[in-house]
Amino acid sequence: MADMVAFGPHRMGLSLELLRVLPAGDTVGLAELLRRGKQTNGQVAITVQAAVAPGAVPPPPPPPPGTSCLLGVTSNGNTALHLVASRGHAELAALICDRAPSLVATRNKCLDTPLHCAAKSGSRDVAASILATMRTTTGADAQMALRARNWTGATALYEAVRHGHTRVVDLLMKEAPELASLATDGGFSPLYLAASINSLQMVQSLLRPSQDGTQSPASFSGPEGRTALHVAAASIQEIPRELLKWEPVGPRLLTEVDSSGRTPLQYAVLYGRLDVVDLFLDGHTSEQSRIPDNHGLFPVHTAAMMGSSRIIDELIKKCPDYFELVDDRGRNLLHCAVEHNKETVVRHICQDEKFAMLLNATDADGNTALHLAAKHGFPRIFSLLLQVMTVDIGITNKDGLTAGDLGYRAKQCGRVFYILDPCSVLFRCLWWSGVTNTLTLDGVHPLHVDKKLADLFQNKIEATEDEPSNEDGKTGTIGSVLIATVAFTAAFTVPGGFIADDHPNAGTAILAKKFAFRAFVVSDTMAFASSIIATSFLIYGAREIIPRNHRSRYNTVASGLVPVAWQFLIAAFAFAFHLVLDHTNRVLIVFVYTVCLATVLLCTPGIWLPMQLGMAKAVWRRAGWRGLVNLQNRPSGLVYQICCFARSLLFENYIRRPLFVYLISASFIVAIALNIALPSY
Predict the structure, then answer these.
(1) From the CB of residue 278, how many other CB atoms can be counted at a distance below 10 Å?
(2) Does the N-terminal or the C-terminal CB of the chain have fewer CB atoms within 10 Å?
(3) What residues pair up with 13 in beta bridges, in sequence order?
(4) pLDDT at 456 over 80
(5) How far apart are CA 156 and CA 3, in angstroms?
(6) Homologous superfamily of 1-40+65-151 in CATH?
(7) Could you give the count of Cα atoms lying within 13 Å of 397 in the half-sphere of its Cβ?
(8) Which of 126-140, 340-354, 559-573 has the highest mean pLDDT?
(9) 579-622 pLDDT, tens per residue?
């Protein structure tokens, strides 16, 4: 506020007449007010000048005749020049600057000068009048006002950039280029701001050499140690290109790091800007690609974490020893891609032989990429790595655990029966691939078994198994009971109604001979039977007096029967609608079947196979056809072989789970075909 007092005008208020003519841009009205003020002042014939003590500051000279009315302020501290500058009234601004030049150095309550207001409004002519007055006005106040900052720490040039007024920026860079070197209190320079808002024209204006040929004095600073090139990495390619042309400063910015240790190249990688990465690497030093951040992450690590395979290929051209680049935890780019679940990068690395050295490399904890995929429960990435036969599945980490051990331990700790649970999927992939484990006590390595620890771990497993199962059992029981209720009700409210008592076969269904009715009866019966059995098993599975292994089997069977029940309930709905619509609405019948089939598919996540296809490929490569049918251990006895096949990938994923979906889909197709070919059937 001290600056406001130093530059502030006299504390009288602006007259109502001025408040009417200034915002409206009424030049004639202002000239009339000034003329009347001059006549009033002309009545004063004698001016008394008080004596000035030696060494004291002399009082300011009296204002010119007729201008005293301009020296007032509004309630917000705005002078007449502030008001016209904010509205871009160039003629009024020129008139006020001519009559009261001292106003160019005044500041309102927000510490804005009239030049700030002109910069915000984007009026180049007003700014030109104010700058011309500042040059001709003697005294330090005018020069200080040129470099003045408002209460946000912004200069007039910064405000012009912030509001996107390129013409004002051009003017200020010609008349006062030193403003480009001043940053806000938060460290934002005008150049940094122009780059952040993707304004190529303002960046060019700020970097344009002075009229005498000297380089632009613009500051490139930004917050947290970032430079304009850091933020330009996310903008259009032309802006970083302009910055690199800024000799000799521009090329040096490539190796500048921010508070986190990141270079502009790191930011270009973070934003996924391949064109900017090519620009930074093309014709410039490759040193920037070898500068790690504060966590030891190189640009190639960042590209892996962001999932940018093409950027990785560009970076390794500058870093032929990319496999030697590791972060503070000893992770290479494959480790980073796995930990951040970037499947595209992992697939790219697995398919290119030049990355072979990364596949079995270990980090500081001795974990390979396969370890990390098993540890974090990423089955798709795990299956991708498992498909590469050069990936060694027997490597142990510093705790003596293989990737298989981590996968089995994740399954033991998870105890989740949801079919698409990542730990469950990964566990089955390990099992079918024949990957053995060395864990003997619920995920505890035999070398690390301590009795107290083992007991504690066992108790934790029991607690995590029982509590969720009770909640899941209640939810499943409610769902299965609802399905049974709906199926039971539908059985006695059949579509089409019943034959009247005074007709033959009284009480039977009218549409009983139609295919859609028979399909409705079968579907409704299957829905009712599946839901009733599931309800019974869920009740048994919730009884604590029943042995735990029996409860687990009951819950597992019930979790498979409930989806079957709602699949058939959806099918019964479709067939009932078919009977109601009959052959007169064939388009609607096709629509109903299509929507119901889509509903069956969406309600049955166990048949979503994109993940399973990759798993099948991994199992085939690791264990051959025996792995696909779960006979890799060569079981003896026909019954045991049948049991193993019933738990195989081929049977579970491609036969058992989608079986009823196949049947329902086929029945829908048959119903549509019969409705078209034989409407009466």
Answers:
(1) 14
(2) N
(3) 73
(4) no
(5) 16
(6) Ankyrin repeat-containing domain (1.25.40.20)
(7) 21
(8) 340-354
(9) 888 777 788 888 888 899 888 888 776 666 555 667 778 888 88
**Closest by Cα among 491, 493, 496, 495 to 529:** 491
Distance CA 153, CA 158 (A): 9
Q: Which amino acid is at 35?
A: R
Q: How far apart are CA 643 and CA 639, in angstroms?
A: 6
Q: Is the pLDDT confidence value at 44 over 50?
A: no
Task: Assign 3-state DSSP to the chain and report helix, strand, coil percentages, each to 5.
Answer: 65, 0, 35
Peptide bond between residue 59 and the one before it cis (omega within 30 degrees of 0): no
Residue 138 has pLDDT above 60, yes or no: yes
- Give the span between the Cα atoms of 441 and 39, in whole angstroms: 105
**How high is the pLDDT of residue 437?**
64
Q: Coil, strand or helix: which one is 476?
A: helix
| Locus of tokens 């990319």 | 322
Cα 157 to Cα 169: distance, rounded to the nearest angstrom: 6
CB of 393 closer than 8 Å to CB of 435: yes
What's the chain's length in residues? Answer: 681
Cα–Cα distance for residue pair 227/255, rounded to 1 Å: 11
SS3 at position 50? coil
CA distance 11 to 77: 9
Q: Give per-residue pLDDT as tens, 380-417.
A: 898 899 889 999 988 999 988 888 888 777 665 544 45
Of residues 385, 347, 349, 384, the one with CA closest to residue 368: 385
Q: Are 538 and 480 in contact (CB under 8 A)?
A: yes
Give the tokens for residue 506.
């009284």
Residue 323: which of 288, 358, 369 has the closest Cα? 358
CA distances from 140 to 6, 100, 105, 134, 174 (A): 11, 17, 10, 10, 21
385-394 pLDDT tens trace: 988 999 998 8
What is the distance in angstroms between the CA of the first residue and the CA of the last residue of the chain? 93
295 closest CA partner among 253, 266, 255, 252: 266
CA gap 134, 156 in Å, rounded = 14
| Domains of the chain, residue spans | 1-40+65-151, 464-677
Asked if the peptide bond before residue 9 counts as cis, ω within 30 degrees of 0, the response is: no
